[in-house]
Amino acid sequence: MVDTARRGFVRHGARTWRDYFTFNTDHKVIGIQYMVMAFVFFIIGGILAMLIRAELAAPGMQFVGGKAYNQLFTIHGTLMIFFWIIPAFIGLANYVVPLQLGQEDMAFPRLNALSFWLVVPGAILMLTAFAVGGAESGWTAYPPLSLTTHTGQTLWAISLQFIGFSSIFGGLNFLVTIFNMRARGMSLSRVPLMAWAMVATSIIIVMGTPVLSGALFLLIFSRILGTNFFSSTAGGDPLMWQNLFWFYSHPAVYIMVLPGFGMISEVLPAFSRKPIFGYKLIAVSSLAIGIFGFLVWAHHMFTSGMDPLLRIPFMITSMIIAVPTGVKIFSWLATIWGGKLRFTTSLMFALAFISMFVIGGLSGVFLASVPIDIHVQDTYFVVAHLHYVLFGGSVVALYSGIYYWFPKITGRMLNERLGQVHFWLNLIGFNLTFLPQHTLGLDGMPRRVADYDPAFTGLNLVSSIGAMLLAFSTLPFLINVVVSLRRGALAGPNPWRAFGLEWTTSSPPPIHNFPTPPVVDGDPYGYGERPVPVAS
Amino acid sequence: MSEAVTHIDPTNTSTGLDSRKLGMWIFLVTEVMLFSSLIGAFLQMKGRSPADANQVLNVPVTAVNTFILIVSSTTVVLALQAIMNGDRRRLKLFLAATLALGATFLGVQIYEYSMLLHEGFTPSGSLFGGGFYTVTGFHGFHVFIGLLWCAGLLVEALKERFSPSNYMRIEIFGLYWHYVDVVWIILFTIIYLI
Amino acid sequence: MSQAPGPEASGSQPVMFDTTSRLVAIVIGVVAVVAGLVLGINNPFLNRSVATEGSAIDQLFGLTLGIATVVFVIVQGFLLYSIVRFGRQPDDDTDGPPIRGNHKLEIFWTVIPALTIFFVGFMSYQVLADIEQPQDDALVVEVKGFQFAWQFYYPEQDVTSTEMHIPVDRQVHMKMRSNDVIHSFWVPEMRIKKDVMPDRVTEAFITGTETGTYPIVCTELCGAGHAVMRSQIIIQSDADFKAWIASQQTTASQAAGAAADPMAAGRQLFNSSGCNACHALADAGAVGALGPELDGYSAVAGTRVPGQSAEQYTLEAVVKPNAFIVEGFPANLMPQDYGLRISEQDLDKLVTYLLGMK
């Protein structure tokens, strides 16, 4: 195991499990702290989803009342976005990126540790909000409704401030690290695509999150100081919340998916034994998505009563953003084309990602068209779309990355058979849950409802069954992780014979990552061109 | 193998830029976005409840206060220049001046707040009030943090911690302080003058 | 380097896509396709629309669906083909061809999607302009949304109703506002949706093309009763619509001369104020289930709060719902501003009505 060191209460490195509960400046420790904590919230959010689907399995109110139901989906959405997918990606990126750059840590290790520990009060506040009740206006918290709900709503807003600060410091750290700390010989055109993805993600975090923070402050002040920013009775503007909120929250969805794109770009070459196709275009398209993502936010407001003329430019930008995304999909397809595919669980999740994300992306084009959106806005069509891109996209990509880098992080291989079981149950459960929801929305079922027209019973039942299967599919994964930590096959430095500096050091890496600082003479996609570098 | 916490050298970088400086610039981008959202909200509120700033607020006093803050930005520049030239005495002098001027600015602001509240101009009383206190309050909070930071740097300067080859922390404080100043100039213009 | 061999060298890891796995994958694939077809045929994407705006949107939807299907087939097709064709041979540990890019291809798959997208955008713009053209002879309906019911007022005819009646083949110009939080007015079969805001009037245009009754659904989370905030739109022939208007005007003037039938006045108020959204009351034809049932209410009204007469309790129950919470129901569910929304005389009529039933 790795060595540890301490100065005061600040530790670096981990020897025992107790070290993972400390203020630790080692990016490898912080990465694991983030990922484990995030997974706990994935499970909590997942349980809430199961309660939601249990209630929706049949028409009528079986288990919960209207208020309680509103709390369920509010907390589900909030947890999944802010406490699961964002921190999970930040965690895995935290572990992997400094290694990929040949560095011994991030640019600001103490800030990194602070970023993680800021999540903890956020989590405590969020769970308290749930216990106390009142966070019932959806994760979008539109006023005036969110001005009338109980105390939990204020706690919810304060909790997100902690998460926001954590996020901002993390994004800052990644940007400085990737630009300022690269191995000798690693020009910007030799930087791994995972790192480019984190550059784009961090640009969004740094520019978008402060606006959410501003909006949340306005909401908090309105709830506790009596300011009237959003109260229609006092002349305030409810639409202003929507504009401020979505200015962040649309780019936020790219925060939630760009790291996944980066992971796919690492996994596909390794298991097709071919370089990534179109490196430059993929890097540029990530940046394009990052910047362009700031120009589309009002497509969440097409039916809000916003200025009708302004809907047009937002429709145009929302459609245009499909182009850089499509470029990536085609580049990935071209990467595997003609390759020598090794169907590890990691690769299978990566392939499933392409398949599911395309579906989510296509439903997004429907939503970008104003007339079509008029019909489907705020319906289960949107719920279907968002889960295809966030679960079928982000979560599946994350699984791919976890199966890929688990050997590097732990020194052990995950069991492939259990991985296959996880994969198939996940794929089937996921599609069974969310595919019918497209039709539900198109046929007239609004979202955020505890009850529905009995005509929708059949599809809702199918969706709920799928959800149970999806939940169950997490078990083989958890068992795999727990068992493999103890009894998995030893991994060695490079079990996948992959390029990338992270594979040139031991698994797990020593405390300062590389015995001697590595030097590079090419990009990490030299498959078919040069032999895989060996650990020194 | 038990060493101190990992030391990352912020000067040995791939771009040649000091990591601390790059970090501060990125941090200032986040601050720009935060204040943009708050200023946007303020302008929206002002548009919905037109209030004549001159009726409610004390423009002349605040104008003088603005000047004080601008001077404090100048003293920071002078402090930086001093240490770059090895003049430790002037460094301490100008850091102290920045602290004093900044504290004066904040003091006057707080005094203004108390007068306004006394006159019945409250955050919840009007849209203009809500916007005013929010946006100037955030600014004041940033000034306060800056003053704490400046005081810390002054203490270190008194302990002779800075030299012509070690002054980056003064420089990045300067960047932050200039930003706080620029924001105030913008706020003063849109709240008090327009 | 001495360490345990990774999966590369060991034969213990299962070789994927061997016969069993292939069989499993094929079976799953066939079942999925068949089940998908069955489900898809029995649950069509879109029910038939009954509005001119709806038809235009449906056509656009069809076009977009066609394009999306083509893209879908291409992507999934390449994926599946690659899986089948490019699996590595069991003993082949060599790398594939080092193809890093192809400028022509990259330009192609940037430009073609961009053009396609612009096409969809252009068609969308056409449809949007089309469906929001105001017409001179439109019927104006003022829509009011509040927690948790809808109310419709016809300014020209001075008629109020909790159901929306409209004549077929005539544009209806809706002017909408909320009393409290944001709601959203949506008729799925007509495809038109617009949020209903408390600080401004929002507008929408619909034109019914077929007679019939269709649900109106609230589509913006508005509180605990969001799922039950529904009404109906009844598209009628011109003659039937005129007849309905006339009957509404008669009932209204009858209710105005209220002493004649306080029960009728109260019943009308019960429904028009939205009580029916949450309370069940057979006499008013209400089946709401969010709040306590009101059948048999008059028997218990006086016993709820000691010292309060039935009249006092009933009045307080309407204007200060939190003063006494019936067991089994949560606080803060019933809107607390009925005292502001309903006039004193109307409140009296409601109390009389509720207590007047046996």
Topology overview:
The complex is a heterotrimer of chains A (536), B (194) and C (358).
Chain A: E1 5-7, E2 10-12, H1 27-56, H2 66-100, H3 109-132, H4 145-148, H5 152-180, H6 193-224, H7 238-255, H8 258-272, H9 279-292, H10 311-320, H11 322-336, H12 345-368, H13 370-376, H14 380-410, H15 416-443, H16 457-472, H17 474-487
Antiparallel strand pairs in A: 1-2
Helix pairs in contact in A: 1-2, 1-3, 1-16, 2-3, 2-5, 2-14, 3-5, 5-6, 6-7, 6-8, 6-9, 8-11, 8-12, 8-14, 9-11, 11-12, 12-14, 12-15, 14-15, 15-16, 15-17
Chain B: H1 19-48, H2 53-56, H3 59-84, H4 88-118, H5 127-158, H6 168-193
Helix pairs in contact in B: 1-5, 1-6, 3-4, 3-6, 4-5, 5-6
Chain C: H1 19-42, H2 52-85, H3 103-131, E1 139-146, E2 149-154, E3 159-161, E4 164-167, E5 171-178, E6 183-187, E7 192-196, E8 202-207, E9 212-218, E10 230-236, H4 238-256, H5 262-272, E11 280-281, E12 286-287, H6 297-300, H7 310-319, H8 338-341, H9 344-356
Parallel strand pairs in C: 1-5, 4-10
Antiparallel strand pairs in C: 1-2, 2-3, 5-8, 6-7, 6-9, 9-10, 11-12
Helix pairs in contact in C: 2-3, 5-9, 7-9
